[in-house]
Amino acid sequence: MTPRKAEPVARLYTDGACSGNPGPGGWGVVLEWNGHRKELHGGEAETTNNRMELTAAIKAIEALSRSVTVELYTDSRYLKDGITLWMPDWKRRGWRTADKKPVKNIDLWQRIDALTHRHKISWHWVKAHDGHEQNERADALARLGIAELPASPAPSGS
User: Fold this and answer.
1) Catalytic residues
2) Phi/psi at 52 (nearest 5 deg)?
């Protein structure tokens, strides 16, 4: 009997950025799978850094066309700790924190939660701005997402 060939692992590198917090924000993704590489980015006019970190992970996972094994790399402890440590308790408490307050960014956390059930995901933290090639590229893509936002119209005088 011939052993089954191991399924390739999708490696997702994600980052979010914000110019002001809140302010214009961007997200970036580097996706590597089976010898292929894809880059994604986007932005929002008024957001927070944490929302962009979560959005980057969402966009990365949504880009996967089928169920695969995933290694997701982020420089956000908020994202990594949220998904691996805090979320089970939030869900048990009806999406409330330990001090009974509603979880911030619940819309994005619930989207990530729904997306993760389709894949086997291991979450990895990398230090930001430490020379990690794919993390640096994801950061550059997030900043590009901000740069590509349309300029705000100048206030009209009366």
Assistant:
1) 15-16, 53, 75, 129, 139
2) -70, -35
- Least confident segment among 62-66, 77-81, 130-134: 130-134
Res 129 pLDDT > 60: yes
Rounded Cα distance, 76 and 124, in Å? 10
Strand 36-47, strand 69-74: pairing: unpaired
Q: Pick 9-147's CATH classification: 3.40.50.10860, 3.30.420.10, 3.40.50.2300, 3.90.1150.10.
A: 3.30.420.10
Torsion of CA 11, 125, 13, 63, to 10 degrees: 70
Cβ-Cβ contacts under 8 Å for 38 (sequence gap 6 or more) = 29, 30, 31, 63
What global pTM score does this model have? 0.91
